[in-house]
């Protein structure tokens, strides 16, 4: 083989490797099939045209076009993902403000009840002194109803965790979704509040969204368990889902780009704490388990 032939063979090898990398990156990061198809068509055109039109000038144009196309798409895709991240960051700021307000309201309600506790006892004593047990019972029933209104569903021992979970479970109740929860973490240090909001917020949002898409005739259920298991911060979310819901290899519905973005965020944050994610699904059930080592939590939060 001549030098020119070796040169064009090496160039074709670079073109092939570049096209394969572009396809791999596109299929890994882009869920849109038209975009995937366009990249596949560009690759076939570049590689096929190389052999169909062997003129050096044509090959040079094909090589430069493929490189420019791949570079341009990579830059545009990175910009698109950065824009998505910016939108997600703004929504996260709103979520953090909402949950912080809910924590403050929770403590304000608790302080209010402690402040009124003495007055309620005096009122009950007055009814009992007058032998009016019926009025005392009615007064207790009224207090119980008011307490149910302000009493959160979850008392985990962590204020921010309570705010997130209570907000999401309250939404589930409004949508008439049966909920079975057990959340106990005590005073054990958890991950950073902002990371906790992203992980739990996305997991519960996705679960509630999937349940909401079920027909009313199908059984619905949301189960949540959060605790400290074997020196790990453990989260388990189980939800029912439509039997015909499509799930891709990244466990994001093909019908929801927002859900896929949230799952990528969760994956990155769990990896940040050297944690583990286990996702399983059957015909009508989806389960997500997350385990983050406590030692990783301490070292990261104090960094």
UniProtKB/TrEMBL annotation:
It comes from the Bacteria. The keyword ATP-binding does not apply. InterPro entries: HATPase_C_sf (IPR036890), NatK-like_C (IPR032834), Sig_transdc_His_kin_SpoOB (IPR016120), SPOB_a (IPR039506). It holds the Pfam family HATPase_c_5. The chain crosses the membrane at residues 6-25, 37-53. Residues 98-147 form the SpoOB alpha-helical domain. One of its GO terms (molecular function) is identical protein binding. Residues 193-293 form the Sensor histidine kinase NatK-like C-terminal domain. This is Predicted signal transduction protein with a C-terminal HATPase domain.
């Amino acid at each position: 083989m001549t030098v020119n032939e070796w040169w064009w063979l090496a160039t074709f090898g670079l073109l092939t490797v570049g096209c394969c990398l572009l396809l791999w990156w596109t299929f890994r990061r882009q869920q849109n099939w038209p975009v995937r198809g366009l990249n596949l068509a560009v690759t076939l055109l570049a590689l096929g045209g190389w052999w169909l039109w062997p003129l050096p000038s044509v090959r040079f144009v094909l090589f430069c076009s493929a490189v420019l196309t791949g570079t341009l798409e990579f830059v545009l895709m990175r910009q698109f993902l950065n824009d998505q991240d910016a939108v997600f960051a703004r929504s996260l700021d709103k979520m953090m403000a909402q949950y912080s307000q809910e924590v403050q309201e929770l403590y304000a309600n608790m302080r209010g009840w402690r402040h009124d506790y003495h007055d309620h006892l005096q009122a009950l004593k007055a009814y009992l002194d007058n032998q009016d047990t019926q009025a005392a019972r009615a007064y207790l029933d009224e207090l119980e109803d008011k307490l149910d209104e302000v009493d959160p569903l979850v008392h985990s021992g962590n204020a921010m965790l309570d705010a997130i979970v209570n907000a999401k479970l309250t939404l589930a109740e409004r949508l008439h979704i049966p909920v079975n929860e057990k959340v106990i973490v005590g005073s054990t240090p958890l991950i950073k509040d902002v990371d906790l909001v992203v992980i739990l917020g996305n997991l519960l949002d996705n679960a509630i969204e999937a349940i909401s898409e079920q027909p009313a005739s199908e059984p619905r259920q949301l189960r949540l368990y959060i605790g400290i298991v074997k020196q790990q911060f453990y989260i388990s979310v189980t939800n029912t889902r439509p039997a015909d819901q499509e799930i891709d290899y990244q466990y994001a519905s093909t019908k929801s780009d927002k859900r896929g973005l949230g799952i990528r965020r969760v994956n990155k944050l769990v990896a940040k704490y050297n944690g583990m994610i286990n996702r399983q699904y059957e015909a009508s059930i989806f389960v997500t388990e997350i385990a983050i080592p406590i030692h990783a939590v301490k070292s990261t939060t104090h960094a």
